[in-house]
Design goal:
The protein is an all-alpha fold and about 70 residues long. It is built from 3 helices and no strands. Helix 1 runs antiparallel to helix 2. The relative contact order is 0.17.
């Protein structure tokens, strides 16, 4: 008999890792967004907003909940 993996805890750890990894990326995009505001570049603002939303949505990815083992995470 071996040790099992607590998948609920593993999912939460994975989500936390995603959140930690996205923090500097969001900060970089905030700077880019401010520059786009200064130049009034609507298409750039929209592009950056889409990227930021994707980063915000990453921890809620359905693949995390569907993962059946640690390798799938």
């Amino acid at each position: 008999m071996g040790f099992g993996i607590d998948m609920a805890k593993a999912r939460e750890i994975h989500k936390t890792n995603i959140r930690n990894a996205r923090t500097p990326k969001l900060a970089e995009l905030d700077i880019e967004f401010q520059r786009a505001i200064e130049t009034d570049d609507a298409s750039k603002k929209s592009e950056i907003a889409t990227k930021k939303q994707a980063l915000r949505d990453a921890p809620a990815d359905s693949g995390i909940a569907a993962a059946s083992d640690a390798d799938a995470l």
